[in-house]
Specification:
Blueprint: E1 3-8, H1 21-31, E2 35-43, H2 53-61, E3 64-73, E4 76-84, E5 88-95, E6 109-117, E7 120-128, H3 133-143, E8 158-163, H4 171-175, E9 181-182, H5 183-186, E10 206-210, E11 214-220, H6 225-230, E12 236-242
Parallel strand pairs: 1-2, 7-8
Antiparallel strand pairs: 1-12, 2-4, 3-4, 5-6, 6-7, 8-10, 9-10, 11-12
Helix pairs in contact: 1-2
Length: 244
């Protein structure tokens, strides 16, 4: 049964303020995922030792890696990635719209990879939305529209996941319910899925949304000594099947 994980890794700096790419990779390796969506990765940035965090983690997991830079400053990049051991191809990556009245907000982006699972193409879209509610709403509407989720090539089984910085009561969350379902509600057992802050998680701001072809069996946020310290978010895990 395939397993997918979404994880905001906080540039691999833990709650103990230690920069440790290997620890983040260990968290993921222990979960034995088939697909991983990561947010807040540094690639070639001075503040994290000029390391390509996306590819380092992918190498440790023996996975292919696609990275999208939401922010680029000369040689330094910061953004999100999709990793997988399944056959895959990059479909699209790009920026999300900002919010005009506050131009200094951090740029945001999205990444779309098609993954083949048992011969079936599954569309995986990873994103990290902004912090300001109006900004989030603009970005969510853009993702839900014709250039992403309603794109002609975004047909059949699909999973939208990432750090939405918004709870289940938000306009952002409801925006995605027009064509997708929250995986948490479809799981056979209801286990804790709050992911932030990792030492004592009380907020569900990391989410997985799925199309009807995705049969969810379990969704959980592993709460263990290593996950409580490796990042300020817990990873969010989903086990699933693709309808034949």
């Amino acid at each position: 049964m395939p397993r997918i994980v979404t994880y905001n890794v906080h540039r691999c700096v833990g709650n103990d303020r230690k920069l440790d790419v290997g620890r983040v990779a260990d968290v993921l390796a222990q979960l034995e995922p088939d697909i991983v969506a990561l947010q807040e990765l540094d690639v070639g940035r001075a503040r994290t030792g000029h390391v390509d965090q996306a590819h380092q983690i992918a190498e440790r997991l023996d996975m292919a890696c696609h990275f999208n830079a939401a922010l680029t400053v000369e040689e330094e990049r910061y953004g999100d990635a999709i990793l997988t051991g399944f056959p895959e191809r990059l479909v699209k990556s790009g920026p999300l719209p900002g919010y005009g009245p506050i131009p200094q907000l951090e740029p945001r982006g999205a990444l779309w990879v098609e993954v083949e699972i048992d011969g079936a193409p599954v569309q995986i879209i990873n994103t990290h939305l902004g912090l300001v509610p109006r900004e989030q709403q603009i970005q969510a509407a853009f993702l839900a529209g014709p250039t992403w989720l309603q794109h002609p090539h975004c047909q059949g089984p699909k999973i939208l996941l990432g750090d939405f910085n918004a709870t289940a009561t938000s306009v952002v969350y409801r925006t995605f319910l027009k064509g997708l379902s929250p995986a948490r509600r479809l799981a056979k057992t209801q286990t804790p899925t709050a992911t932030f802050p990792s030492p004592l998680p009380v907020l569900r701001i990391d989410h997985l949304f799925v199309s009807p072809e995705i049969r969810v069996t379990d969704v959980f946020a592993p709460f263990a000594p290593i996950t409580r310290v490796a990042s300020d978010h817990l990873p969010l895990v989903m086990d699933f099947e693709v309808a034949g």
